[in-house]
Amino acid sequence: METVDPLMPEIARLLAAKERRRRHLAALPFPHKVRLVIQMQQMAAPILRALGRSFRLWDIDAGSPPTQR
Question: Do 37 and 58 contact (CB within 8 A), yes or no?
Fold first, then answer.
C-alpha cells in the first residue's frame, strides 16, 4: 500500500532552489544587502500607503555605488 505523492519531487526542487537563493544572498557584501532591503521597502510602500500604515523609507541613494570605510 505504498503511495507516492506526485508533489514530492516538485517540493524537493523548490526547497533546493530556496536553499541556493539563501546561500547566494548570505554571500553578498553588506552594501548590496542594504540595497536589496531598500528595494523591498520601495515595493512595499504603495501597499502600506493603501492600507493607511505609517512607515519611513531609508534615506539612502540606492543608485549610488556603496562606499566602504
Answer: yes
